[in-house]
Amino acid sequence: MRWTWVWALCVSQLAAAPVVIFDDLPATAVYHGSLLRLGGGAAAGYRQLDALTAARLAVLGPQDTLPLVAERPLGGQGVQVRLSVLGDGVGWWEANLPIPAYQVARGDLADGRLSLALRGASGGELVDIGLLDRAVPRHNVRLPLSRYGRLEAGWTLFRVPLDDFLALAPDLDLTRLAMVQLASVRAVPLSLDVDQVRIEPGPHDPYATRTILEAPPAPTVAERPPTTLPTAPAGPQPPTTAPATSAVATAPRSAAGDGASAAPVTAVEPPASAATSPVAATASPPTVQATVAPTQPAQPPTQPAQSTPPVAGPRPATPGGGATVRLPDDARPMLPVSFFYTDAPAGTVGWEHSAFQATWATNQGERAFDDAELRESFVLAPGGRLPVGPAAAGDRSGAVLRLAIKEAGFAWWVARLGRPQWELSDERPYLRNGRLEFAVRGSVGGEVFRIGLFDDADKPNVALAMVNQYGEVGNAWNTIRIPLRALKTAGPQLDWARVKGVQLASAHGRPISIEIDDLRIVNPVGPEE
Q1: 458 vs 449: CA distance, rounded Å
Q2: What is the pLDDT of residues 208-230, one digit of tens each?
Q3: How far is it, in rounded angstroms, from Cα 515 to Cα 351?
């Protein structure tokens, strides 16, 4: 009985652990997996800015990531995320911080809060704070940060109750959150730093919303000189459709201070009600997006976008010069160990080592499509193989696989790809740290399908995962990374010593059109830390 009580206590403590979104990372140049999108204003129309224009109006890393800097970080060490946008030419902007995968019950989060430390360049900056989930369709909800107090020129800890997001979007899936978002309120120049972002399960005082962590600097250094910001060439342009929002009026919350922070700081009392705050009076109302446009990009919580494999190299030391640290998954040197598709010889029409089948689900049971039905509903090469076509100029090198479902209706489809001559592979050595990865692009963005591995049993065992659990398919190329351990959990019967290939399968009966490239299994180079 005593051990049962101890076990239950440990489980309760695990469930109550915070979900860390951003903490101190190695002193790299950019925050991998983040995304900053900028759009034109009313004069230019509500549109996404092209990559060259965006690079002139904001400090961006490769693939429009946010930079990391170590200028007066929170606590005096580590690095923080920097968001710096010029107002001239920018009508709106949206910064996305990926949320890693986590296991927590919705009940643990219902009384929780989103906690993050912010610091403005001069103080008084206005931003919206939001959450985006991975539901299908996805839900996106935003609130004015000014409801919870004024953003200062020194570090301030904001605590946004998750109940406030649920009040505007009751269907928001707290157990499958994908992104924390900071978004523009108005088109004015803005520069702020972000640190210590996390989701803290409840219960909490719902009115403890803000604590001053650092006194503002002297006025002479309030403005941040542009030379302190790292620069990097802009990467591929993200999808070009910005989500539409609809205003929803809600009652303001109290913004009473909270002196319970663990940091040795002085708590302050903001105004008793955000409605009486002059900052709140100028802020935009809360906005909700019950469904996100299909072209809305989102990076995998743990699978940051990267179109090419990282270059092997030494692991950097911590900012303080101590022991080496384990790099994030997108920056670790990885070695390809099994190729299922990477390129095709010139003139190839269909990938030889592929097969496609579809099954009707009818009142009389299931039956396979005949040849005529396959040609009518799916775009296939001769012999039922997946078609191969050249990538658009500047997109990818060589040719890419194409999967087009014109209209499946009440049918299920399966596409399988193997190694040359369907050679079997033993993936057991890579189960601990390996991953299945591939580059994908959708025709419109937001496409959903299942992907995984199958073995050579008479009735093949499969291990599949929903692609949108590890990254979003956009209309620009994105690399999805699925840990092999996740597939092992999804398909425990799979024979990892006799893997025959990769399987793609339908997640619904709607049309879908995607392109796939560089489909392979990779494993870390060298020993793990």
Answers
A1: 24
A2: 788 888 887 765 443 443 433 33
A3: 13
